[in-house]
Write a structure and sequence with these properties.
This protein has 324 residues and is of the alpha/beta class. It is built from 13 helices and eight strands. The chain has an eight-stranded parallel barrel, surrounded by five helices. Belongs to the DapA family.
């Protein structure tokens, strides 16, 4: 079984110095190890006020409450956090508020990916100087960039911010790009690429990447396939429904590590029941409304997302009442 131990202890993250003080690749190895990513990570939602401004008070509050639920790390400004609907300044502010709220108790990954390389470099420099453990990046999208252009985009960021640990974000259904050990070998061979967030149903590709690049952290990105991903070598998960249901993910992990497959399947079914209901109404808004029902008003997702109607809200309310 390869690299599939997920940590239980709340190890304080090693913080790399600011962008003007970074050293060589060796400083990367001394600061961040792939094993440090072996956690249950929340793909954190971004609470909004009614006028679509960010509710930073609610953000800090749900970070605290999610840690009480057992969340072991936060992934900011990704798909669940509406990162591509935020301005660059808002993305910086989200990272700063999350880091303030965690206060070194759990690590933070900042998703910095966007279409323009200069913007990614700006966000990366900020995230690392603010204290994030690593950054994560979707490939550039919309234009049909060649694989050489896509890999060069990652390499340009790494050159501009030496020593930065990078998690490749593989989410082909949104970007139109699917990374594999073959087409991304040059990228995955880079020592600054410390892992991959694999939000793809192709678990065969995940296992092949793990075998070809055994030092990389394999991180599951689809909540509904955590157990399958663990069996293929994943060491962690970053999930949307972790926002509300972190204990269920811990139970899947713990049962898997104990070799109790029947129990692991039971808890994976519990996760999937919640994923299925949330997807029906819009999973990102469902997570926000779930937190509103828990007493922290997180508003709705930014336009062009539409807010939940009353029927959808009832579905989420019923979901929050589900028993394991």
């Amino acid at each position: 079984m390869r690299n599939n131990k997920l940590f239980h202890e709340k190890e304080k993250p090693h913080v790399i110095a600011g962008s003007n003080e970074r050293g060589s690749e060796s400083s990367l190895e001394e600061s961040v190890k792939s094993e440090q990513f072996s956690r249950i990570w929340s793909a954190l939602i971004t609470p909004m006020n009614e006028d679509e401004s960010i509710n930073y008070e609610a953000l800090e509050r749900i970070v605290e409450l999610q840690m009480q639920d057992g969340v072991e790390g936060f992934y900011c400004c990704g798909s669940s956090g509406e990162g591509l609907l935020l301005t660059l300044d808002e993305r910086k502010q989200v990272v700063e508020h999350v880091l303030k709220a965690v206060d070194g108790r759990v690590p933070v990954i900042s998703h910095v990916g966007t279409i323009r390389t200069k913007d990614v470099i700006e966000l990366t420099r900020h995230a690392m100087s603010a204290g994030a453990m690593a950054v994560s990046m979707i490939p550039p999208y919309y234009y049909k960039f060649s694989m050489d252009e896509i890999i060069s985009y990652y390499e340009d960021v790494i050159r501009a911010v030496p020593g930065v640990p990078v998690i490749v974000y593989n989410i082909p259904q949104f970007t139109g790009v699917e990374f594999s050990k073959d087409n991304a070998g040059r990228l995955l061979s880079n020592r600054n690429i410390v892992g991959i967030k694999h939000t793809s149903t192709n678990l065969y590709a995940l296992e092949r990447i793990g075998q070809a690049f055994p030092g990389k952290a394999l991180i599951n990105g689809f909540d509904e396939q955590l157990l399958g991903a663990l069996s293929m070598g994943a060491c962690a998960t970053i999930g949307t429904t972790v926002n509300l249901f972190a204990p269920l993910f811990q139970k899947v992990r713990d049962a898997f590590q104990a070799g109790n497959m029947a129990e692991a399947c039971h808890w994976q079914h519990a996760v999937n029941q919640r994923v299925e209901a949330a997807v029906k109404v819009g999973i990102f808004n469902a997570m926000k409304y779930g937190w509103t029902l828990r007493g922290v008003d997180c508003g709705a997702c930014r336009s062009p997302f539409r807010p939940l109607d009353e029927a959808s809200k009832r579905i989420v309310a019923d979901l929050m009442e589900e028993k394991d």
